[in-house]
Design goal:
- There is one protein chain.
- With about 190 residues, this protein is mainly beta.
- It has 3 helices and 13 strands.
- The chain has a 7-stranded mixed beta barrel with strand order 1-8-7-11-10-9-13.
- Strand 7 (about 70-75), helix 1 and strand 8 (about 100-105) form a beta-alpha-beta unit.
- The longest helix is centred in the middle third of the chain and has 11 residues, at about 75-85.
């Protein structure tokens, strides 16, 4: 495991959401989240394991139990606004795309290296899995609130959909707090 080095970047938490289990992918805004090793209690993506999905079918048959590295969906406010603008919307509600955390102030957020960490003031630390590629599911939610705009979500969100992440060290997080970015101290892969 490479050493993690602190960067000069910290993102301000501008939005937090809770996507209840058993419902749609929409998340409801909250002022504070309590995050344990399983993620957020009662959430759609809670758990230390999950059934594999189409995104990893080249590795496992669908439904295989694997580590849950998508407990959270973290987006960047600036990238979310860029998506909205490209779609022709004034604003895109983070709840419609199932956001858990929206940060402001970390450039090119969707492409921070896998394995990077975001750490909040309580000690809460999340590990970035990788880019959360856009799919059609948020488009359906957007279409319900903004008829005629849902289909434009997937292409507009390309390269700015944010990342999936999992809890490495539990803790709380509130709107207005800052999360410091740590990245792996290793060169880029160059086969």
């Amino acid at each position: 495991m490479p050493v993690l080095k602190e960067t000069d970047f910290a993102g301000e938490v501008v939005w937090l959401g809770h996507a209840p289990a058993g419902g749609s992918m929409q998340s409801q805004p909250v002022d504070r989240l309590s995050l344990g090793f399983s993620g957020v209690a009662g959430e759609r993506h809670e758990g230390t394991q999950r059934a594999s999905c189409v995104r990893v079918r080249n590795l496992y048959p669908e439904g295989t139990e694997i580590r849950n590295v998508r407990q959270l969906s973290i987006l960047c406010d600036e990238e979310l606004q860029g998506t909205a603008t490209e779609m022709g919307l004034q604003r895109l509600d983070p709840g419609l795309v199932g956001a858990s955390i929206v940060l402001r102030g970390i450039p090119d957020f969707t492409h921070i290296p896998p394995g990077s960490r975001l750490q909040g003031p309580s000690g809460l630390t999340v590990t970035i899995d990788m880019e959360n590629r856009p799919c059609v599911m948020p488009g359906r939610e957007i279409e319900g609130e903004n008829p005629g705009f849902g289909a434009s979500y997937k292409p507009a969100a390309k390269n700015r959909r944010g990342v999936t992440a999992w809890i490495e060290c539990p803790g709380g997080l509130a709107v207005g707090e800052r999360m410091r970015l740590f990245v792996p101290d290793q060169r880029a892969w160059s086969p």
